[in-house]
Design brief:
Blueprint (H helix, E strand, L loop, with lengths): L2 H16 L6 H13 L4 E10 L1 H11 L6 H7 L2 E12 L11 H10 L2 E8 L2 E10 L2 E10 L3 E9 L1 H13 L11
Antiparallel strand pairs: 1-2, 2-6, 3-4, 4-5, 5-6
Helix pairs in contact: 3-4
Amino acid sequence: MGKPLTVLIGCSLGLTLFSGCLWAPDLDRVRREIQQQLPGARFERQFAISLGPVSLRMARALVRFVPEAEEARGYLCEVRDVKVAVYEARNVPDKTNIKMPEQLLLLVEKHHWEIGAKVRHSGENVWLLYRSDGDSIKDLYAVVLGDDELVLVRARGNIDRLLAKAVRDHLGSVGDLGLSYN
């Protein structure tokens, strides 16, 4: 097989594997709900990505070749899929009366998610939801709304292990915090 044909097949396969990976419509619905609650506010997408099992497998393979990214590989192994969207916030009025978006409430009411935290502090609103499977956290949904930015993250995988690993790597002993790491 000639080199041009090999390159063409490789590019086609890459496009097939990554098609749609830059769009996360469920995160955009949450953004729209928040925007509707804040008259005059605008949220302009700066970054959005959705990576599934195939994309993450490729990312894990690629970080093997980047010595500076070796630590990331350990975290990537715990994630099955992840969606992240970051929006620049403009003209955000007072957020003191903002409510949790309906999309998040539906997860709690109909899909057995739990509210891990609702925080309103220093101009930021944070909603953190999770869903467990027995003793393990399998899903995480985080929404952080500040004066300048809206960040939405939804991840699936071994979230409890991911969080314990992050705490251990960056804050010291997990046992000191009363967390277990299996």
